[in-house]
Amino acid sequence: MKIALAGNPNSGKTTLFNAITGKIEHVGNWAGVTVEKKEAKIKNSLNTKGIDLTAVDLPGAYSMSPFTSEESITRDFIKNEAPDVIINIVDAANLERSLFFTSQITELGIPVVIALNKSDLSRKKGTSIDTRLLSELIKCPVVRTIAVSGRKNGLSELIDTVIEAGSKNKAQESLGIQAAGISDNRDEAEASDKKRFEIIKAITEQVERKTADSAGQTAQDKFDRVIAHKWLGIPVFAAVIWLVFSISQSWAGPWLADILVGWIDAFYGLVEGVLGDAVNPVLSSLLLDGIIGGVGAVVGFLPLIMVLFFMLAILEDCGYMARVAVVMDRFFKKIGLSGKSMIPMIVSTGCAIPGIMATRTIRDERQRRTTAMLTPFMPCGAKLPIIALFSGVFFGGRAWVGTSMYFLAILVIILSGLVIRKITGDNSQSYFIMELPEYRLPNLKRAVVSMFSRARAFIIKAGTIILVCNTIVQLLQTFSWRLQAVGETMPEASILAGIAAPLAVIFIPLGFGAWQFAAAAVTGFIAKENVVGTLAVTFAVTNFINVEELALIAGGGQVMSAFGIGAAGALSYLVFNLFTPPCFAAIGSMNSELESPKWMYGAILFQLGTGYILSFLIYQLGTLIISGKVGNGFFGGLVAVSLIAGSIVYMMRRGSRGAAFKLEKAA
After folding, report:
1. pLDDT-derived band of residue 631, with 50, 70 and 90 as boundaries?
2. Which helix (H) or strand (E) holds 441?
3. Which domain holds residue 394?
4. Quick one: which of 213, 277, 424, 487 has the most CB atoms within 10 Å?
5. Residue 564 has what pLDDT?
6. pLDDT value at 552 more than 50
7. 3-state secondary structure of 487
8. pLDDT range class, residue 562, cuts 50, 70, 90
9. What is the pLDDT of residues 247-264, one digit of tens each?
């Protein structure tokens, strides 16, 4: 049997899918988490009949008349693939709203079993639901479930009911019973909605009894008056992010990283002792410095990243991240977007690729494209090693570095959105309606699982893409154009230096004109973690965590002198890598979501220009504040920045004129 799981967003659908299959899919507090259908076999412990049962987790939907591409996936799957049974996940705490979707899918001729989920929350609110009467009125079985509970969760009863309903379905098919159709006509759908709402309201009044005072202010309401307040919510968000980075980058993360780096150093010494003088120096350098040293430098930051992922999973699970979207909505409205655009950006803090894919839930095409274009500006998991490197090595592990990068990203997104709105000549208004989930104690097990699943993806990338890139970088740094080993004393004669040196010239006004930084920036477009790996290879550093070791490399001087870069240049380089185009995989996702070569090339050029301008401003202003004079290459950089800014201003004016012409024509 093929069993479809369908329901409203935030009804606990993916949590139920994980509970009955044993899989670990991402669970969020907002629409847009499941952007594609996912399949898995139902656990044998629940499948007492021994039937081959496949569960399909469909994206959340409020109606079978789709308004978003997510709802289209759900509608098309049910219509075209005709599952044997539909498990309709109904939020017991929001019964009337959930039953609207239920009333539509029960008309399709496919057996429906209602999983009345979050029954525990419903009871805590003083609400009781007569499941037997509900089953009679809605004409399908109803089973109480608590997907987050390990005991008495109703899942075994649910699967038994599903099997029974599926077996009856086979008999119905043999009698020639056919499914009813679903109207694709929007006018017809809207005409029936009013009547449907009246029926659902009547059913809810019969089966639901509420003893709590719904007009009174709950504890959640009191919290939201502060956390989701239009002004207070911003400093609260800043404090939360600062605390997250303090724990992950300054306290727990470095302590765990020291342990891991100790193991890596021990392994490096062991391999070095085994190789000795018996192995060719070139091969020895390739293995030790290129592979173990380069990959080890990246993996050394894994504990910091894991702690950060754990903290973000806790914030998401307790319901706080949904409040962030509400707080940011008022700012996003100014640029023609909405708080819903914030959701893909929050998702992209783990990885930009699912964040970009989550833009599919945005109805308006221009908003969807703009969000897909701006989402990569958020620091993703691949950029965290760069933040951790520069925060720890150049700024003493200060939490403000990582925190400021997130708020700088939000500021850049808002300003960029305003620019894009002017370029496209869009004057439409944005509206945002979002259901705030209940506050709840975070599930530590789920947070740990989420942390390890993301860490696994990081390790796989380190063992494949980063390993290959570091090996190539080491080879290019080892040999000259005549394929002769250049040795450690003449790295500037290497192939890598010859390729990167011309590119380094354009980075002089940004404060990092050394060929090593140029090479790392280029490899960062393949995978952002490569920035750390390439710097480790080119500067022959195996341990970025131990600042004392870096000081020895600098000859006992300041750590920054080991890299030939100052504080302003270090911050500039960090910003450049965060706000230029993302990795190739994310660019591919962006291309598929933008669905326009014009938007795609425009997005890449805009991201490059944004990164260059920001880096120039940070380096030159920082140098002016520190030393009282502008930095190297100021006038050349000023010309480049002026050309970029002039091109953007010209496009903005052209877009405004086009918008004015459209309004005049419409009038």
Report:
1. very high
2. none
3. 233-666
4. 424
5. 77
6. no
7. coil
8. low
9. 987 788 888 888 888 898
Strands (E), 118-163: 127-129, 142-144
Phi, psi of 5 (to 5 degrees): -100, 115
Residues 6+ positions from 292 with CB-CB distance below 8 Å: 264, 267, 268, 271, 542
Q: What is the DSSP letter of 59?
A: P
- Residues 261, 177 share a domain: no
Here the CATH number for the domain that contains residue 53 is: 3.40.50.300
- The token pair that represents 314 in the structure block: 């806790």
Q: What is the pTM of this model?
A: 0.79
Position 62 pLDDT exceeds 90:
no
In order of 482, 509, 564, 566, 596, the CA distances from 497 in angstroms are 14, 19, 16, 21, 37
Rounded to 10 degrees, the C-alpha dihedral 212/217/220/221 comes to 140
Q: Give the chain's largest Cα–Cα span.
A: 88
Element holding 411 (H helix, E strand): helix 399-424
How far CA 129 is from CA of 6, 143, 199, 201, 357, in Å, comes to 21, 11, 17, 14, 37
Quick count: other Cβ atoms within 10 Å of Cβ 369?
A: 23
**In this structure, is the dihedral angle defined by the CA atoms of residues 652, 598, 362 and 451, taken in order, positive or negative?**
negative
User: Is the pLDDT reported for residue 115 higher than 60?
Assistant: yes
Q: Which two tokens stand for residue 256?
A: 């765990």
Tokens of 608: 């490059």
Work out how many domains the chain is built from and give that number.
2
Specify the amino acid at residue 319: G
**What is the overall mean pLDDT for the chain?**
84
Is 57 in contact with 30 (CB distance < 8 Å)? no
The answer to whether position 546 is within a domain reads yes
As a whole number, mean pLDDT of residues 487-494 equals: 78
Residue 217, domain member (yes or no): no
